[in-house]
Amino acid sequence: MKATYVLVTIVAAVVLQLTLARFTVGGRWLFDLVLVGVVYAALNWGPVAGMLAGTAGGIIQDALSDDVVGLGGLAKTIVGFLAGVIGTQFVVARPAGRTILMAAASLLHRLLIVGLHALIDLKWPTVPWPAILGETALNSVCALIVFQASEALPGAVARGRQSRRSGLSRRQW
Fold this sequence. Notes:
Elements: H1 2-21, H2 33-45, H3 47-64, H4 71-89, H5 95-121, H6 129-172
Helix pairs in contact: 1-2, 1-3, 2-3, 2-4, 2-5, 2-6, 3-4, 4-5, 5-6
C-alpha cells in the first residue's frame, strides 16, 4: 500500500513538473517538483520509500529530458534515502524544519548532478551557484506549500463532512 502512495506522489509530481515547465523561461527546469515529491515521500513513509520515489522519479524525469538517463535517478535515490533517514532520526514535523531539509536536499541533489557530470565528462565543470541557489529557493517554497497543504487538507475535509452531517441532522428533527 505504501508503494502505491509513493508512486502516486511521484506521478503527480512528474505531471505537475511537465505542466508547469512550459510556463518557465525557455522551458528550462527552474524548479524540481519531482525532487519535492521524493523528499515528501521520504519524510512521510521513510528511507525505503524515499529510495523508491527517487529511483522512479529520477528515471522518469531523465527519460523525458535530454540528460543522461540514470544520472538524476541515482542522485534522487541518494537524496531520498538521506532525507528519509534524517526524517526518521529527527523530528521534522514543523514547516521550518521540513523547508530547511528540502533546501539541503535540493542543494545536495544539484551538487551530486554536477559531480556525476564531472565524472562522466572527465573534467570539472564550473558550478553555477546563482542557478543552484535559485532552484533551492524555489524548491523550498514549493515544498513548504506542499507540506502545509498536505497537513491542512485532511482537517478541511473532516470539517466539511462534520458540517454536512450536522446540517442534515437539524433538518431531520
